[in-house]
Amino acid sequence: MTLLAAVAVGLAVAVVSIAAYVSVRQQMYQNLDKSLTDRAVSAAKQQVLTQQNNLEGFGPEALGLSDILLGVYTADGQRLGNEDSPLPPMQSPELAVAQDQDEISKRTVGAAMGTHYRVVAVPALFCAQPTRGSPCNADDPSDWEPAALVVAQSLKPIDQTLHNMGIVLWAVGLLGVIGAAIAGNAIAVSGLRPLARLSGAAEHVARTAELRAIPVDGSDEISRLAVSFNAMLAALAQSQDRQRRLIGDAGHELRTPLTSIRTNLDLLAQADKRGGLRPEDRQQLLDDVRAQMDELTNLIGDLTELARDTPQIRNAELIELSNVVEDAVIKVRRRAPNLEWDVSLEPFPVWGDERLLGRAVTNLLDNAAKYSVPDDARTDGVPVGLVTVRLQDGVLTVTDSGPGIADADLPHVFERFYRSSEARGLPGSGLGLAIVKHAAEQHGGMIYARNAPGAGAQFTLWLPHAATQTR
């Protein structure tokens, strides 16, 4: 920023200085040319300085024009002037004026800051002194011949003025560049101080993994960057917190089936050392181990699903939601044959992951089937509960015939590993509804629960139509 400010000001000063220098130089030359031309034309018309006696008898100094050189250049190439004064430069441009008599010549002769003149030649009529000594007759054309009155003025004063002006412009420009560099450096240091603080905070996070927000002052771009950085830290902190809770809850939940499996295996090993168990006791122990293994497998699968903490699905495809729900109903109905199923489905296309949506719908149906069977129900082929499934306009509602959800448990039913007091005696890990919420959020939908009037718990899953989604 310091270099940019210095270069920008330097270029601006250079452009302005050059423009000012050229403009002043051109104006001074124009004023000088006008002054010389007006005086030369006036002198040519008065025909005083164009008479040989007057020209040779009086030099410019006698007229108070010490910086002026005066001479006449005749059409036949004679250079005439005062004997005690140097003649002005008279060459082909001035000769052309003397011969053509129709234009004025203006040119600069010499080197700057040296012998430097501005030369003006105007058409004139020159009168050489007649041999009989009589004065020139203005009315007698035979006394006059074509010539050029040449006037030259030294440019030393103008050159000195322009030289001084150039020094002043260079000095002012240099001071401007230095001042711009100092100001740019001060502004850069002041403006980038929040960025340095932000960089320090990022380095602190990388070094210590401590997700501490940085203070934000102002509303400029760097302040907005700091706000975004703090939002990123907050999101990262939430993600870490979810991971810690998931690991802690998973460790707690995994400990129970693992402890049960180890206990049963120890009992089996001890019994084998004492001669073994009765066949029916041994089979019961193995069945218990097998059930614990199934529970552990399901728990690990649920944990794996929830560990995919991605904001949205990546490989979405166009799927028919009604087919997903129908397949889930068939699967759960086989596991709960003692329930009556009231199913009504309407076609509804969505973009999404068919496997994840299928698991979410299956979890909803499994949850409804589990709570629709009373504890004292007799399974003699007669339905003991009812599960109602409706899919209309992308809204899937699953209503069971169980006791419903307690008001204190409603805000927590979708939390990971949450088990109500009534559900702790039933099989499950407390992750099924959490997976449903996870799937709904990944597909841009939502899920909520309530108690249906005259029935049990009702879960409503909403998903957006495929036409409103982008792949």
Distance between the termini: 43 Å
Q: What is the percentage of strand-forming residues?
A: 15-25%
Question: Mean pLDDT, rounded to whole units?
Answer: 81
**Main beta sheet: strand number and arrangement?**
5 strands, antiparallel
Count the domains.
Answer: 3
DSSP strand count? 12
| CATH homologous superfamily caption of the largest domain | PAS domain
The secondary-structure class comes to alpha+beta
Per the principal axes of the C-alpha atoms, what is the gross shape? rod-shaped
Number of helices: 9
CATH topology name of the largest domain, in short, is Beta-Lactamase
Write a brief structural summary.
The chain has helices spanning about 1-45, 50-55, 90-100, 155-210, 220-275, 280-305, 320-335, 355-370, 430-440, and strands spanning about 70-75, 80, 105-110, 115-125, 145-155, 315-320, 340-345, 350, 385-390, 395-400, 445-450, 455-460. It has about 475 residues and is an alpha+beta fold.
